Amino acid sequence: MPSTLLDSERTTEERVATPRTVLMCRPEHFTVSYRINPWMQPQLPTDTALAVRQWQTLHDTYVGLGFDVHLIDPVDGLPDMVYAANGGFVLDNVAYGARFWHPERQPEGPAYMDWFRANGFDVREPREVNEGEGDFLLVGDVILAGTGFRSASDSHAEAGEVFGREVVTLRLVDPRFYHLDTAVAVLDSDGGPASVAYLPAAFDEASRRILETRFPDAVLVSDTDATVLGLNSFSDGRNVVIASRATGFEKSLRERGYTPIGVDLSELLLGGGGVKCCTLELRR
Ligand code: ARG
User: Which atom of ligand 1 is nearest to the CA of 271?
Assistant: First the structure.
């Protein structure tokens, strides 16, 4: 009887895929020319053609899952633009624009807002520093919001005003996990007690307590899986696209009835990003 099962005990048959609408940016200008997170090492070579091929596999995986994939034109001189998640936060046809902390990425904010405007979204220009879906994740009716490295906590209040939703602030403490989407994965958008996976050590104690209270049946991942950016994944409620190297996380997902799909984005990992970073969900 499905109804008597715990959320965390659902089988594959009971997991329902809802194809998503997403925005992506082909990494035609990808490289690592500056260092704004500990993953980035500008002295190491990058292979842009390989980055494009790996990204294409992610893109084609989404198309294969029936997703509606939109593309924004990459801009020369903005090598991090491939990380579309940072371009804004979109909900109820409203696009809350990004305002980047680092000067190197600041021109991306207006570039993404132009795209949102041209594609019929109601754009809200941000007053506060925030890096879009990198630090804002919708789970059920609630917006989980990260701070500590990039998005200012004042942006959490601003997002609350823009969307009229509850915003829950979570403080990140490990510089390797500088955006919320590197430390939390939303598996099921229903927002139930098992609807997320996370790395407890990425958060301060108060935030860990909040996560434990809201998501008592969450998947807790190992440091090993988190340090290949395994949590930086994208779920449609049944299929979870993850870093292929996150083998422990893959196993946990299977045990809970999800279908993990591994992709290798090793080149984009050199910039400190993975699957989710390359994916901005568009919610009309
Ligand atoms: N190099 C980029 C930065 O440091 C990577 C962004 C990754 N994006 C994400 N949503 N976590 O800003």
Answer: 1
> Average pLDDT, stretch 146-153?
98
Instruction: Give the whole-angstrom CA distance, residue 50 versus residue 52.
Output: 5
**Cα–Cα distance list, 214 to 142, 192, 194, 218, 235 (Å):** 11, 8, 9, 9, 19
Name the residue of 29, 46, 83 to mutate for ligand 1: max ligand atoms within 8 A of Cβ. Answer: 83
Q: What mean pLDDT, rounded, does the chain reach?
A: 96
Catalytic residue among 25, 29, 59, 277: 277
Residue 136's CATH number: 3.75.10.10
Q: Let me know if 277 is a catalytic residue.
A: yes
Q: What is the mean pLDDT of residues 202-219?
A: 98
* Domain boundaries, position 30: 17-281
**What SS3 state is found at 154?**
helix
Chain centroid to Cα 91, Å, comes to 14
Q: Is residue 12 a part of any domain in this protein?
A: no
Question: Ligand 1: which atom is nearest the Cα of residue 85?
Answer: 10
User: What count of other Cβ atoms lies within 10 Å of the Cβ of residue 157?
Assistant: 14
Ligand 1 site, CB within 6 A: 36-37, 40, 80, 83, 85-86, 105, 134, 179, 181-182, 271-273, 277
**Residue 127 covered by a domain:** yes
Tens digits of residue pLDDT in 136-145 = 999 999 999 9
pTM exceeds 0.90 for this model = yes
Whether the pLDDT of residue 3 is over 70: the answer is: no
- The answer as to whether 7 is a domain residue is no
Number of domains in the chain: 1
